[in-house]
Amino acid sequence: MTHSQSVLKTNDVSSRISKKVIHSVQLLDRIRQLQLKYKQHVIVAGDVMNKITRRLIKEHTPRDVDVMERYKISKEMIIKGVQCEGCFVFGMIKGYRTWNCPHCSHSSRNPHIRALKDYSLFIQNTITNQQARDFLKLSSISVASKLLVSMKLPYTGATRGRTYDLSSLKDLQK
Ligand SMILES: [Zn+2]
Fold first, then answer.
1. Does this model's pTM top 0.70?
2. 160: CA distance to ligand 1 center in Å?
3. Would you state the pLDDT for residue 172?
4. Distances in Å between the alpha carbon of 33 and those of 16, 66, 139?
5. Measured in angstroms, how far is the CA atom of residue 99 from the centroid of ligand 1?
């Protein structure tokens, strides 16, 4: 189980399940225990080992699915603006320090990160200042620039026409 706070509850009295299902943080210890317990090498290096190696790498590579194609979504269907985490309505307004929701008065510091993550998943992996202003519904070039710079994204190009790389956002949990 990858989430550190997940709890496994079972009515299996033999505790068979809780011996097999563990938190990911315990995985390395568990492998070491198994190595101590089973010292004889059953699989020797060679074809079988290579096959297992390839399989593990393949199963551990994230799938790069074109969600737009798969669910028949066009770019025009993506709602622009920053979504409120309180009432889920789009259109938070950027204030001096926070984004504020005109519908429920919820305010939040970084809801634009979620929006840009969505942009990277649905539209493209890179964004310019102009594209960010359009997508986040911001009018100010300098405010958009400040937001993008504060996220410490890798970029290419000079100040004008600079392209920020959003691919690192894909790994964010939220
Ligand atoms: Zn709201």
1. no
2. 33
3. 67
4. 17, 41, 59
5. 10
